[in-house]
Amino acid sequence: MTTQQLIDQIRIKKSFLTVGLDVDLNKIPKHLLDLEDPIFEFNKAIIDATHDLAVSYKPNTAFYEAYGIKGWLSLQKTINYINENYPDIFTIADAKRGDIGNTSSMYAKAFFEDLNFDSVTVAPYMGKDSVEPFLAFENKHTIMLALTSNEGAFDFQTLNVGGKELYKHVLETSKTWKNSENLMYVVGATKAEYFTEIRKIVPDSFLLVPGVGAQGGSLSEVCKYGMNANVGLLINSSRAIIYASNGTDFAEKAREEALKMQQEMAAILNDIKPN
Ligand SMILES: O=c1ccn([C@@H]2O[C@H](COP(=O)(O)O)[C@@H](O)[C@H]2O)c(=O)[nH]1
């Protein structure tokens, strides 16, 4: 998917919601556990119930890898289901990869070619040659960790390095890499006060923003400081939506939570003018 197509979807749906598909067998409704592939059945019901309210889905691969080959197959069925039934949805493999160049190329093939995700998250720690192999794929997006939502973000990411915080070096340096137009960045909703500085460095880039809902970040604060003329934000919520109920009404309740977020987003979008 191109960036323009993503922007168009945001305008059409009046939503910049990403639903995180972080499926834990201990948390899903018990009646699904008797089915052959409970993870896929859960995802399918959540996707069918929320696809008109969200512009993207973000399975975190850890929740699939934890179940071995069966989990990987559930992930494959989930991405195929989205691509076949809702081709306008932007898909994010939250895998946080990155390694020496030839290994990164294999990671990129796995997520962009084999699984056919639109985007994958990567860690910047190994630098340019670990990220550029992902950037080489046309109309695919590499979402690099910049300032994460967790407390540990303050261990390294905000360290002062030569008069500037490390996350700022990451943002600035990455803009010089080949095909950097294919970059997006992860910035945690719990760090709303940093968005103004971040927008000075990457005014036009899309930011994937986890941390609203279960982690307590504020949608309105993030939008106030992080939104650009093309919206430029994908706000992720995982647990607060998908585990709204663990009864037979789980999909309905997930829709109710997604609808609340979408309505808040629609109201915010009403106040900004398109480019
Ligand atoms: O900085 C980061 C980067 C990634 N995540 C991931 O996003 C979701 C958040 O889930 P919630 O249930 O909405 O808290 C999850 O997959 C994280 O691994 C993040 O939270 N922060």
Automatic annotation (TrEMBL):
Annotated GO biological process: 'de novo' pyrimidine nucleobase biosynthetic process; 'de novo' UMP biosynthetic process
InterPro entries associated with the record: Aldolase_TIM (IPR013785), OMPdecase_type-2 (IPR011995), OMPdeCOase_dom (IPR001754), RibuloseP-bd_barrel (IPR011060)
Domain named Orotidine 5'-phosphate decarboxylase: residues: 16-254
Molecular function, one GO term: orotidine-5'-phosphate decarboxylase activity
Short name of one Pfam family: OMPdecase
Recorded metabolic or biological pathway in which this protein acts: Pyrimidine metabolism; UMP biosynthesis via de novo pathway; UMP from orotate: step 2/2
Recorded catalytic activity of this chain's protein: orotidine 5'-phosphate + H(+) = UMP + CO2
Keyword tags: Decarboxylase, Lyase, Pyrimidine biosynthesis
Class of this enzyme: lyase
EC nos: 4.1.1.23
Family statement drawn from the similarity comment of this UniProt entry: Belongs to the OMP decarboxylase family. Type 2 subfamily.
NCBIfam families associated with the record: pyrF_sub2
Protein name: Orotidine-5'-phosphate decarboxylase
Lineage, broadest ranks: Bacteria, Pseudomonadati, Bacteroidota, Flavobacteriia, Flavobacteriales
Gene: pyrF
